[in-house]
Amino acid sequence: MTTTKKKSYRETVLPEDLRNITGHQSTSRKLDTREHTKYLKGHLGSSHRFGIPIHPHRRCDSTDVKEETDTKIKYHKSYYVDQAGSGVIALRDVGEFPTFLVKQRRIPEAWTFRKACHDNLVSLLDFYTESNSIFLAYEYIHLAISLDCLAGIVDMSEADIATVCRKILNSLVYIHSELRISHGSIDCSNILLNEKGEVKLANIGDSMIHEIALSDWKEDIAAIGFIVICMNNNTSLISGAALEDTTLSRSALKFVGNTKEKTAKELLDDEFLCLANPGGSWSLKRHYFDVLPLSIRFGKRARERS
């Protein structure tokens, strides 16, 4: 019975008045596959969603799947922002459009790429090359604020300073023990704060490119001592030199002295860090929102490459 119904449905002929309700001869016709593709390209090829060009998919059979899968994944660039240095917000052309911060550098003669992921590090997740440039794809931290913006505007307590130091030391333990390199550029401009109060050390990809040797780890640690002084007195950040008449407590000054001798792991047990927020760095959120209106700047829109 089912077969009979389907057959009668296919052979049904509509009356003339239903086939042409307007009373005019219909001029519509079916498009074959080639004409349909041409129509889509003409009408959909220039459409955009969130600034990303959308191109109609070509028909493909099973032999095309491998070719499409092996194609280099593309990043669709959006706006330039300052996230511990200039970079461009980019959406990766995969499911759900994950967001990255892409920074352009010159291709080094030799370097070893490693994914670098840690709670207190701006994670380095991918890279690609184009012409004479290498593009480092970091996690994107929305509306990130560098520590030098805070140090110049808000008054940070020693508990706040200890909280920042503990988080940076955590990232250095990972860099020194897991990545087996040194960061080489620990300063307030490379330390970021987000809306959750999380502290993250930026630009680990530059350390890989420049092959900062693990033997330089003492410079990383000593830089934390200078950061303590800068957060306590922002004029030190401007002058680039520590002040003699500091208001730091005895335990803080002892910590600064220890940064010239001890490793990151050893410093995590320092008496000064007992002042740090025991539940994380959420206590820094108030400082983030104090300076947010003064710190965010978006640059020009990035141009897509064909």
UniProtKB/TrEMBL annotation:
The keyword Nucleotide-binding applies. Keywords: ATP-binding, Nucleotide-binding. The keyword ATP-binding applies. Pfam families: Pkinase (PF00069). It comes from the Eukaryota. InterPro entries: Kinase-like_dom_sf, PAK3-like, Prot_kinase_dom. GO terms for molecular function: ATP binding; protein kinase activity. Belongs to the protein kinase superfamily. STE Ser/Thr protein kinase family. STE20 subfamily. This is Protein kinase domain-containing protein. The lineage of its organism: Eukaryota, Fungi, Dikarya, Ascomycota, Pezizomycotina.
